[in-house]
Design goal:
Oligomer: single chain
GO biological process, one term: ribosome disassembly
Number of domains: 2
Order of helices and strands: EEHEEHEHEHEEH
Keywords: Initiation factor, Protein biosynthesis
InterPro entries: T_IF-3_C_sf (IPR036788), T_IF-3_N_sf (IPR036787), Translation_initiation_fac_3 (IPR001288), Translation_initiation_fac_3_N (IPR019814)
CATH superfamily of the largest domain: Translation initiation factor 3 (IF-3), C-terminal domain
Shape: elongated
Largest sheet: 4 strands, mixed
Number of strands: 8
Distance between the termini: 79 Å
Structural class: alpha/beta
Family: Belongs to the IF-3 family.
Protein name: Translation initiation factor 3 N-terminal domain-containing protein
Length: 203
């Protein structure tokens, strides 16, 4: 099986006839590979294989920037899609959710995280509400921050709707998180001790 990584194929084209799409996404029809390479050189573009298992195979002329953006988009999509064998649960609610309802939802998230599930959280902006969506996501993460982190950070998926995906931390991440927590605690204790000392001096 050929490497299916998205990127420029250079000048290595095993097919004689190609279906070519230009950088604006418009079809230029079928053409000989020599003509496709000529176009590529004339416009200083790169050829990318889009579909191989069709007749003729589909190639697209793209700029380096377009290729880079598409690679990032695919990487983000891959990251957000659950790995084989990983269960992904979903919860969605409105930004106007009542405090006790939110507590019930976060408890459910914590239970799923304990089972090493991925949890997709979708929040819809309630009509007339100007609730800060990012604060809501932070609040949810805070309740499970001892064991969970973002697999995919909160982002707007469509107008008025934002989503994130939470996952259980790896053992390595958990150790690092606990270490940070211990350092924080020892700093707080040190400050408290110094406060006590300064109080004793003042008395």
């Amino acid at each position: 099986k050929r490497n299916t990584a998205f990127g420029s194929v250079g000048r290595r084209i095993p097919y004689r006839i190609l279906h070519v799409i230009n950088q604006d996404g418009e079809s230029l029809g079928n053409m000989h590979r020599a003509d496709a390479l000529k176009l590529m050189d004339q416009h200083n573009l790169k050829l990318v294989l889009l579909k191989e298992n069709v007749e003729p195979p589909v190639y697209r002329l793209m700029t380096g920037q377009q290729i880079h953006e598409e690679q990032l988009r695919r990487a983000e999509k891959k990251k957000a899609s659950p790995k084989p064998g990983v269960v992904q649960k979903e919860l969605s609610f409105s930004s106007a959710i009542a405090k006790n309802d939110l507590e019930i939802k976060t408890k459910q998230i914590a239970q799923w995280i304990d089972k090493k599930y991925h949890v997709k959280v979708t929040i819809r902006q309630a009509k007339g509400s100007n609730a800060d969506m990012s604060m809501l996501f932070d609040q949810i993460l805070e309740t499970v921050s001892e064991k969970a982190t973002y697999l995919s950070k909160p982002k707007v998926t469509r107008e008025g709707v934002s989503a994130c995906i939470l996952r259980h931390m790896s053992d390595k991440e958990l150790k690092a998180h606990q270490k940070m927590g211990n350092q924080k605690n020892s700093t707080v204790k040190k400050d408290e001790n110094e406060n006590v000392k300064s109080n004793e001096l003042h008395q």
